[in-house]
Write a structure and sequence with these properties.
This protein has 74 residues and is mainly α. Helices cover 74% and strands 0% of the residues. Helix 1 packs antiparallel against helix 2.
């Protein structure tokens, strides 16, 4: 396992779960960081990952709503 093959990961790199974990742990790191330069960098990375996660969550919500409307129609 060299860490470069997607099958080597328990959770796929681009999955919604991966982004949830990334946002959670980056938030934890941001709160613990003392250096303001590092905090700024962490905040930028957190913002990027949170924006990606928000898009993924919106897609999941859309799928959920579509499934519910399909089930109610049946």
């Amino acid at each position: 396992m060299n860490g470069k093959d997607p099958e080597d990961y328990i959770v796929p790199r681009d999955s919604i779960k991966t982004y949830r974990y990334a946002v959670y742990f980056e938030n934890e790191a941001l709160w613990k960081e003392k250096n303001p330069v590092c905090r700024a960098n962490l905040a930028r990375q957190l913002a990027e990952w949170a924006a990606t996660l928000a898009e993924m969550e919106a897609e999941e919500a859309q799928k959920f709503l579509q499934q519910n409307s399909d089930n109610e129609a049946a």
